[in-house]
Amino acid sequence: MSDDLARALTRVRPGDRAHATTDSRRYTAVVTATERDDATVRVTAVPESGDQWLELRATRADDEWTPPTVHRLQHPDDDWTELGPLVTLDVD
What's the pTM? Predict the structure, then answer.
């Protein structure tokens, strides 16, 4: 499952509307940026409600993806806080 979610993150593009779920919450956000290289993928998004940015992250090591996680940017400190593992991801 982690591999499937991480691979799904690699296909997300700016402008996509993402529906991400952690163990406890569901977020709907518009993707504003994606960063990818051989070892990591980061997807930054702005929620449809609220002003806290979200980031979905996955890391690849030894040809396997780590479980993707959801992070929130907390203002005014600009400190990323992990919200939990990414459980589901739907994009439209």
Answer: 0.86
